[in-house]
TrEMBL record:
It comes from Bradyrhizobium xenonodulans. The chain crosses the membrane at residues 127-148, 154-175. This is Bll5862 protein. Keywords: Membrane, Transmembrane, Transmembrane helix.
Amino acid sequence: MRVSGAEATGASYAYKASLIGSAHRFELTDEGLSWRIGRRSGLWRYDEISAIRLSFRPVSMQQHRFRADVSHASGGCLAILSTSWQTAALMAPQDNGFRAFIVELHARMARAGSRAELTTGLGRRTYAAVLAFLAVLTVAMAGLLIRALLIGEFAGALFIIGFAALFAWQVGGLVRRNRPQGYSFDRVPKALLP
């Protein structure tokens, strides 16, 4: 695949959010963030962008997927994903292009004097609900493990330990990366970029 000059500098990015939908296209111009999604299009000046939220959002077809939600002062929101549908069974990562585009977007917004709110992860309430659910699940699993050990079900205890380790490995990265916090234009969090 041939890379254009705009793509090489991170000034443009495109992905397919679904297999049958049209491509989502973005370009960083001198005037602002130009976007085209299907028949809709627009140009958001860099100082009109009110917020960016970076997050880690794995899905079953792609366990290494990142998302940037860009909000406009008038209330609009654009989702930019680090993966693109290729076929019915393949969602391809676009790590380098996504990273370059997001870093360049932050640089241009900083040069334009943007006062956008820069946040990471899930919303605070959602994150608190996830932590509460994990705490309840941990207590339940610990109770099951203690019960299995007390009645001598060592195979069951090993299963619980194995399941807990797999669950902690799968969910731990998601929870750790999606902790809500703020950041600055010159310190874009590397954990939320591919």
